[in-house]
Structure formats: structure tokens, C-alpha cells
Amino acid sequence: MSHTHGGAAAQSRPEAAGSRAPGSASPRTDPGSGPRPLPVDGVSVMAIVNRTTDSFFDQGATWELQAAVDRGLAAAAEGAAIIDIGGVKFAPGAPVPAAEEAERVVPVIAALREQAPAVRLSVDTFHASVAREAIAAGADLINDTTCFSDPEMATVVAGTGASVVVTHSLAAPRTELPRPHYDDVVAQVRSRLAEGVALAREAGIAEDRIIVDPGPDLNKSTRQTLELLRRWDEFSGFGLPVLAALSRKDVIGESLGLPKEERLEGSLAAAAWVIARGARILRVHDVRETVRLVRMLEIIDGSRDPVGPLVHNA
Q1: What residues contact residue 96 under an 8 Å CB cut-off, 6+ apart?
Q2: For each successive 10 residues of the chain (314 residues), what is the average pLDDT?
Q3: Which cofactor(s) are needed, names only (predicted)?
Q4: Which residues are catalytic?
Q5: What is the C-alpha separation between 139 and 157, in angstroms, rounded?
Q6: Helix, strand or coil for residue 73?
Q7: How far apart are CA 278 and CA 302, in angstroms?
Q8: Most buried of the four, 78, 137, 250, 288, by CB within 10 Å?
Q9: How far apart are CA 40 and CA 311, in angstroms?
């Protein structure tokens, strides 16, 4: 393991994409400042910033533009290497027009690209049009939790040089899949991920710009997700970075019988488990705690030096 990289509001229409938080940037147009490669060594912590009023954990705490930007800056200060900005949650619900989703996420990306230039920026979207605008504003990574449900997505990513997360899920965007069934959940998840990776390659997305996410809890029961975790090392067979999105999810809550507010310790245990089995990006709500977890693991395995001072029995 190498060093960690690092770094409820009222329902209303957010600021338009052209609006700017104090000190924020306009969407960039300089073709020489395109998407940057993601960190390639060690474990990177990806912070979650949602511009929604109904996200399962933050419940609208970062709905307002400045609140979202401030949370991103705080995450960078806490050691996040990547910040993932979302404007629509994965769970079933009414569709959000792509134009409105872009209005939510693009100003945050533009502001963070200017104010936290060392941090990589991701947008959580399944709309190719939103991805295109986000990349123009400064995004480096497209986190598509629907495995290219938009047929234009792979082409947009390839054409801009951005990176992409190929995620396992089954349901159409924003729709429910009751009682998902798998004969062998790991084999079937691997098979669908392989299809997504092949599509990305065929579209011309560079090999070093592809990440896979087995999709814990996405169209999976707790028992099915636990089986993914037990066999997590099998996802390293793609030879690509593996992203783990486990933070405060229902697999943690149902395993321990805890509400979302009390799932930190379980989330950290799950993070340590998947790191030991090849995970290289952790998508989390609790950045400071997760960064400390990763750094301690690195110190134990010798890839990071202790901070010190080393005075105990010295």
C-alpha cells in the first residue's frame, strides 16, 4: 500500500449554472486544462458532496451552492484526494431534468477547480449531457452508477479524456428493482462489469481512465452485498482500480442493527476489509476518519513513516 492521496434546506431551484459563489470560477474553456489523471498509487479517499434535498444521509445539508462548495473545501483540507459531486440520488424517485441537474453540479465543480486545484473532481451522473458540462467546468471523473444507461456517455467520456467509474447496477435510472435475484452474485456482477469495461474500451476510453465499482447495495440485498465483500478480491482480476462505496449504507445498518447516524465504525471496518482485498478508492461521507484509517494502515505496512515524535520507550 502506498501513501494516501489527499487531500436541510428548503426545496428550491438552485443557482443557475452561470451563477457563482463568492470567489468561484466560471466554467473553464481553456482546452489545455482538461481532465487530469487520477492518483495511481495507494488508496484515495473520495468525499461525497450532494446538491440534493433528499440524499439518504445528509438530507439537504449541502443543497445551497455555498454550503456545497464549503463542504468540498473542508473535505480537501481533511485529506480527500477526490470530491464526488452529485445532483440526483441513485434511489428511486421522480426524474430530474438533465438541465436542472447540471445547474446543481456545474457551479460546484467550477468553484472547487479554482479553490482546491490539487483535488480531483468527480460528478455523479448518468446523463451524458451533464457529464459534458461538468467536464467543461473542471471535472476529471464521471461516476456513472448505471453502467452507461445513456448510450452517449462512453463517447462523451472518451472524447474529453475524462476518467469513468463503471458501476454494477441493474435497474433503469431512478426505478426500483424489488427482490433482486442472483444465482452467483459475484460472478454475475463481474460479468456485467466486464461488459461495461468492454464498452468503455470500445468507445476509446484509455485503460488508465477506467475504474470499476461492484456497486454494494445497488440493486442488491444485504446478504448479497455481504457476499460481494467476502469475495472482494475477485474484482481485482480486471487489472483496474476498484472503487468501494460502502459509507453508512444499509449493508452496515442492517448488519449491526443501527440507524445511518451510528454507522461510522461499521463503515470504517468495511473500508479496512476492502482495502486489504484490493480497493483503491473509498467513496465516503466521513473523510477525516477514513483518511486516518488509511494512513494508519500505511504506517503499519511500512509505506508511510510515523508522524511522531517517536518518544515512547525511545
Answers
A1: 87, 88
A2: 46 38 39 78 95 77 93 98 93 88 97 97 97 98 96 97 96 80 97 98 97 96 98 97 98 98 98 98 98 97 96 94
A3: Mg(2+)
A4: 249, 283
A5: 11
A6: helix
A7: 17
A8: 137
A9: 34
Q: Are 256 and 301 in contact (CB under 8 A)?
A: no
Q: How many residues are listed for the chain in this entry?
A: 314
Residue 8: burial class (beta carbons within 10 Å; 0-12, 13-18, 19+)? exposed
**CB-based contacts of 46, cutoff 8 Å, min separation 6:** 80, 81, 82, 83, 84, 122, 243, 281, 282, 283, 284
Cell of 149: 444507461
> pLDDT tens for residues 241-259?
999 999 999 999 999 999 9
Question: How deeply is 235 buried, as exposed, middle or buried, from its count of CB atoms within 10 A (0-12, 13-18, 19+)?
Answer: buried
Domain residue limits, the chain: 43-301
**Residues 164, 209 contacting (CB under 8 angstroms):** yes
How much is the pTM? 0.89
DSSP letter string, 217-239: TTT--HHHHHHHHHTGGGGGGGS
